[in-house]
Every structure is written in C-alpha cells, then in structure tokens.
Amino acid sequence: MDLLKFITAGSVDDGKSTLIGRLLYDTDSILDDQLEAIQRANRKNDDGTLDLAILTDGLKAEREQGITIDVAYKYFHTDKRKFIIADTPGHIQYTRNMVTGASNADLAIILIDARKGVVEQTRRHSFLVSLLAIPNILVCINKMDMVDYDQAVFEKIKNDYERLTESMAATQIDYIPVSALKGDNIATPSPNTPWYTGSPLLAFLETVEVKRQAETQQARFPVQWVIRPQTADLPDYRGYAGRILGGTFTVGDQVVALPSGFTSTVTRIELDSKSLPTAENGASVVVHLADNIDISRGDMLVKADELPVLSQNFESDICWMDTKPLDVNQTYLLQQHGKTTKVKIQDIIYRVDIETLEKSASESFGLNDIGRIHFKSAEPMAFDRYASNKTNGGAILIDARNNLTVAALMIINNPID
Hints:
Elements: E1 3-10, H1 16-26, H2 32-41, H3 60-65, E2 72-77, E3 82-87, H4 95-102, E4 107-113, H5 120-131, E5 136-142, H6 151-164, E6 172-177, H7 201-207, E7 220-227, E8 239-243, E9 248-250, E10 254-258, E11 262-271, E12 274-276, E13 278-280, E14 284-289, E15 300-303, E16 309-320, E17 332-336, E18 339-352, E19 359-360, E20 370-383, H8 390-393, E21 394-399, E22 404-413
C-alpha cells in the first residue's frame, strides 16, 4: 500500500493539533484507551465536544501551554493509503524541530486561520517548506465556521497566498476550506460550503499524486560495510553492503567508485544470500564487482553515466540546532551516509532573518538560525543538489568535541562551478 508522509505547519492556535485529532477520530484511528484518556483529561471545546488536540500534545509542557513544542508523529491508514503525520511546532524558537520533522515529508499542510489570513508565520513556514524542497503544498484555510463559511474570505486568502509563493519551489499548491473543530470538509464534504467543489481533506490525501523528486532516477549506493568472511567456505568473498538510495543497479552495469574514481562492473547482487538480476531504490543488498578495487565504508558506487558532483568545496543551506553558536574557527565533522570527514567554514554567505525572510551578511549563527555557508572538506564529497536529490544532497554537521549534531545541511552547489 502506498505511503504518504506529510507535515502540518501554521501559526500558534491555527488548529494544527485539532486537525490531526479530527483526522484520527474520523478514520477510527484512536484506540479505546486513548479516547478514555481524552475524556479523563476533561479538556472540552466551547461547544462541549472533546478537545481532539490533546492527541498530539505529548509533553506536559505542551498540555499546560496549549502549544506544540516537540514533533509529534501519528500514524493512520485507510483502504487506499497509509499515512505518517508530523505535527510540527509553530513557534519561531522551535524552528529546528520543524526542520527535523519536515525533512522527509512528501507534502506540507499549511494551516491559515480564516480570521487572520496570511500572517508572518505563514511566510516563515512556507519559506522553510521551500527550503526543504517539499514539492506539494496543501493550504487548509481553517476556522471557516468563525467567518460564516464566507467564500470571499477563502478566495482572498487564496489569492494572497498565491502571491506569497510566486518565487517558491513548490510544484503543486492546492486549497481546501475547513473547520477542524466542526469537521467541515475533513472526512466528508460540508453542506456549509456549497461553493467549494473540490475533495474534502481525507479524500484529497488518499488520491493526491505526490510529485516526488527525481532522486529515484539517479543510481546511488553508499557503501555501509565491506564484507570479507575469509573462511574456508568463502575464501575469496568480497561484497559491498548498503542500501540503494536512488535508481536501480543491474548485473553488468558499469560503475564508478567515489571518491577514488576507479571503475568496474557489477557481477552479482545479493539479497538474503539470493542472487538478483537487478535491485531498485530502497533495497538493502550486497553488491559484487569484477575488480578488487579499493573501496571502504563511506565510499559510493554510481553508474558511470550518472555521476554526481565530486568536490571539496560546496555551499549549503543550514539550520543551526545547537545552543552553542557556530564557531568559524572550529573544525567540524560532516556526516553524509556512512562517510564522515572534517570540514572548515570558508564563508558565511548570509543569514536569513526568520521574521522578515531578508538575507543579510553575518559573522555568527545561533540556535534556530538559517542561512547559507561555504564549506571546504578534507576529502572530496560525492553529492547532488538537495533540491534535485534530497537523499544525496543532505548531511549533518557534528561538533567533534562532544559528538552532538549541531546543524542540518541542504547542499546547494559547488561554488567553483
């Protein structure tokens, strides 16, 4: 069954948690003990109905403040699709949490309060969605019951959002008027919006054609382990274990090992000790080559006619995740797949003012800051642009002093090109 991973994002009190709770409730995805816990919590809406938002308030601080802090993952399914929802924080101080939750999403639901329209946080969240190369955006204009289901309000917000996203990278933007509290246009069409002829939210999610990246077209095989049993039964066995992160590999393919540049031919592909003629994106396999070339953990096998960029210099959008600010004089560790190498910061190209989205020169980076940095690595890195291949264009930055992850990287280009 097809899987759709999506996030919800919006301003505080726009109704993200209520929307998710409504989806779970209307698809019978709430367990009896969860429903009992909600009833015991004695949180009611103004009309006396259960407060479904509590389903995603996992932390005590969230329940006390009525805001989302951590990323809450929820799972449900229908007869047509499986779903993973990431309810991400709306507060600016939890930007790193949103980036983490959104990094693997296929679709983003941007919630807009019908009473407030497009606000500053709408701009910020839409910018982050664009930065993370999420190709599908669904704008849910929520709390339509608070504006008497006025079509003019819906159309104005739709027009305002279209102007906002003219320069953004989303390939598909759709709009649905909803009331998460009342259930309008969530699981079934609402009689209160006869002017809306599109699908309700659940039907949309079941049928939307996700415009995923072309990463599945480029064959990438990061080597996780070199297998050399050297036993009496397998004295000459040499296999390279890993997970295919794009494209397909077939016996007979001409491949290049990076960063060395040595070439060879695929002679065998194993899965659970069985030989396969071909292996596709996502398969964890063992690859055998015709030549005993020098390959180690962290190296990458690619098809000879599908080469990525190989360089020690690259620019990257980053989200800083550590309470300690970035130190331009420090050597950090960059981890991409199984490869870890030292990197130095050559230049802070700009930092984004997350309130205004203006880009300006900066000499520092602090918690939740987003911007662009020029790095130089100790070893050549094999990468693709994040916008065209998330799998091979993303990485993390590690502080070697304490092994903490301090930043998420979305590689942009090779500045020498």
